[in-house]
Amino acid sequence: MGTLFSPGGGPKFATDNQVGLDLSLSFKKAKEQTTVARIPREDLVSETQSGVYLCSMHTLPGTTKKLGGTDKGGRSFDHRRKWIIEQLEVQAELMAMDVVGYSVLPRTLTLLLRTRPDVAKGWSDAEVARRYQAGLYSKVPFGEKRKTAPAEEVSVMLESRVEMRRARSRLSSLTWFVGQLTESTARNCNREDENRGRFWEGRYHCLPLLDVQATAAAIGHVDLEPLIAGEATTLAGCKFSSAKLRSAPGKSGFLAPVTTGASKNKDLPNLLTVTDAELVKVLEWSSRQSRRFNDAALSDEIAAIFEKLKIRPAAWLVLVREFRDLFHRAAGNVDSLDKIRKKRGLQHLHGLAASRELFA
Question: What's the pTM?
Answer without folding.
Answer: 0.89
